[in-house]
Backbone:
């Protein structure tokens, strides 16, 4: 009974009671202050602006969290991109972090720090829910999509070679271990939020060995989850179905290899909100988890007080639920959703409103 009611009517609240058995938070508050320490990577571009919004709202809501600034500025070790030891130690100590967007230079300089973080902490599953906001009308209504993306390999393995001038080989690495880890998590997650269906999105007609392995692992694991119906779907069919009938996925969780998940989740954001500014995510590992917005550093609007902080705020709500601070999560989530629903003067430009990052933040604080 509980399983069918957990996810309904809430945005990003699926982790409240229905915690999967994998990747649970084991951190403890400081025994003296009663507060949890959470490393905060504010990020680039709009990162500092939307991070300030989170900090202001958390302070107003009296959330028992102390932020620890976390610098992940790139360091090169034997030519490989890595992050400072202090950041690794802080995140390993506190077992959780909140992260703003990190920009990646194109074609030169350091490798993506987003990927480096996911690899460093083995954050194997990226949970990306995309839901319509109640009373905020977009082209599509009642969209409620949950996507889990493999987060450590696939096309993001960073293995590329020049075979000969003008010929590049880029390797999509798929391993049984990583596939098993994310698909098992996806089964557990589907069960925990009370959905009856897990859809494996793939292209094994073409990527016969790589996606074939991913699909076969799912089929093998399915016998351990007789309460969940496993379906497989070619990615091109998924794209068409999700655009024409997004409501047909409201009883399902989807899981897919890395790049498909990156692309599909932006599509899901567009369908649910018409913007990237609302979609949160959780990068889950066995020990550590890092929460971040799906969007990037939005350099086109950085420093202009225009960014929508909701995606990072909802990521922080997912984090609070993950940490068991459910009441604070619900309070902040409700304040955000009712602010967005309250009219265009309280919505940022990406939602066709006139609010600034700071006026939206004020409005949320007034609704706490
Ligand atoms: N997880 C991460 O930290 C990610 C980082 N990136 C990095 O971000 C940089 C910019 O990437 P883009 O491809 O331009 O994608 P982007 O997500 O930064 O921006 C795409 C479009 O969405 C808008 N947008 C994004 N977030 C918004 C917000 N909170 N409020 C209002 N509008 C918003 C932007 O203004 C832009 O028009 C790149 O360096 C990229 O590597 C990109 C995606 C994810
Ligand atoms: O790291 C980047 O530059 C982009 C990362 C990204 O799009 C993602 O995987 O979320």
Residues:
């Amino acid at each position: 009974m509980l399983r069918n009611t957990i996810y309904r009517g809430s945005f990003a609240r699926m982790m409240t009671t229905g915690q999967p058995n994998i990747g649970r938070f084991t951190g403890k508050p400081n025994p003296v202050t009663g507060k949890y320490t959470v490393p905060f990577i504010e990020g680039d571009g709009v990162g500092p602006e939307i991070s300030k919004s989170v900090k202001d709202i958390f302070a107003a809501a009296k959330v028992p969290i102390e932020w620890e600034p976390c610098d992940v500025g790139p360091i090169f070790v034997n030519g490989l991109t890595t992050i400072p030891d202090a950041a690794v130690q802080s995140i390993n100590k506190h077992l959780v972090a909140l992260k703003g967007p990190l920009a990646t230079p194109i074609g030169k300089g350091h490798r993506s720090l987003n990927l480096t973080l996911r690899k460093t902490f083995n954050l194997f599953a990226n949970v990306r829910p995309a839901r319509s906001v109640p009373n905020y009308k977009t082209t599509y209504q009642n969209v409620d999509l949950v996507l889990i993306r493999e987060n450590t390999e696939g096309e993001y393995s960073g293995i590329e070679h020049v075979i000969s001038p003008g010929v590049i080989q880029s390797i999509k690495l798929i391993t049984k271990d990583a596939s098993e880890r994310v698909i098992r998590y996806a089964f557990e997650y589907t069960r925990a939020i009370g959905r009856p269906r897990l859809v494996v999105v793939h292209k094994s007609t073409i990527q016969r060995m790589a996606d074939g392995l991913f699909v076969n692992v799912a089929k093998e694991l399915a016998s351990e989850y007789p309460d969940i119906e496993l379906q497989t779907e070619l990615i091109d069919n998924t794209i068409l179905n999700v655009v024409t009938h997004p409501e047909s996925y409201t009883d399902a969780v989807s899981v897919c290899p890395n790049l498909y998940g990156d692309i599909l989740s932006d599509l899901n954001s567009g369908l649910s909100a018409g913007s990237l500014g609302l979609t949160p995510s959780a990068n889950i590992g066995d020990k550590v988890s890092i929460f971040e917005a799906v969007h990037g550093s939005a350099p086109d609007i950085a420093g202009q007080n225009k960014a929508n902080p909701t995606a990072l705020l909802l990521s922080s709500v997912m984090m609070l639920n993950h940490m068991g601070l459910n009441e604070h999560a619900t309070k902040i989530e409700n304040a955000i959703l009712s602010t967005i629903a309250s009219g265009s003067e309280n919505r940022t430009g990406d939602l066709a409103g006139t609010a600034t990052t700071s006026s939206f933040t004020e409005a949320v604080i007034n609704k706490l």
